[in-house]
Amino acid sequence: MKKTTSILVIVLAAVLMTTGCSSNKAKYVFYFIGDGMGFSHVSLAEAYLAQERGDACAQDPLTFTQFPVLGMATTYSASNPITCSSAAGTALATGTKTKNHMLGMDPDSLPLKSIAYTIHDAGYKVGIMTTVGINHATPAAFYAHNVSRSDYYPIGLEMIESGFEFFGGGGFLHPTGSPKLEEPLPSLDGIAEEAGYTFARGLDEFAQKKCDKIILTRPENWDGALPYRFGCAEGELNLAQVVDAAVQVLEKGRKGFFLMAEGGLIDYAAHSNNTLATIFETLDFDQAVAVAYEFYKKHPKQTLIVVTADHETGGVSLGREKGYRFDLTVLDEIETNESSNDVELYMTTKAVQEEYSEKAHIGWTTGSHTGGAVPVWAVGAGSQLFAGRQDNTDIPRNICKAMGIKF
Ligand SMILES: [Zn+2]
After folding, report:
1. What class has domain 26-403?
2. What is the distance in A from the centroid of ligand 1 to the CA of 268?
């Protein structure tokens, strides 16, 4: 009896020690990157939410803007004060700055190891997802190494070789090689299947398929980005659904997981200076973060959520020219009904988008990126590491630190 009691005490002490240690470490990590999402994109989305409930003089918080930790990250690349998405993605994935247009390589073209590989090697499951092509710059920075971000086919091959458990959102860009090629190359879809990946085309298929390695895309056989949320057909796959599906796959791992989700269409919309698309993509991104936040509430001591951007796109401002004027109510004129001609006209006509930006007094200063710092929000295990001023290269190191993984 005495022996049983002492064994019990030892076992209990061991359990307490283990849980005590692990409660300080992040076991489940969500890394959200709003491509091109600067402070003003976020304020614009918050102003839109307030305006929707009838208050034209307020800003309602998003899920992630309520996170307790806030920092700022500098974004310049190794070659330019204004970064491109592949250099920024490389910094955010590997902790090393590189030249614009390079991917997962240092300025001397030496390959860099992304935290996704380090974390995967440590036994965690890994998922990478985006609203644009899955071999586009930001997701690719987590698994590929190439002197050119535009080399989509070999980048796609590296994705397949990574062996990460989940990919989702957009499909492959250039799935049979560059369109300039006379002879198409073997399809990346087929190569992925041969390598043990199962495609789930849509959520219905996803629900039926139980597999270890999965690629979740839209229902039809298709490649490239998801459609813009503003004006898209009902039932279109969105980032929140992809994150939710990823969690179902990744949480089967006993060790934990690392999930990177990119709001890639925020950048596309801002490059076009399309105000409504920018607002809707930012809100869509926030809904994906909300899925992670629900998970966090179930595992608050073991979950870390980091939300940031790779750079700012468009130089958007709330107000343009003199006069303290900013009025989103004019956007109501464009019906949000999917069958509305107004929506289609707005989404397809640059002059109409510009007309409404002007009426709402929203300024856009460029069709490219800007060099300003971006926000960083965090909640959960290790979130304090992301407070204050930091460089984009600090973020992946601090994620590994929060997980207790050497990087
Ligand atoms: Zn961009």
Report:
1. alpha beta
2. 6
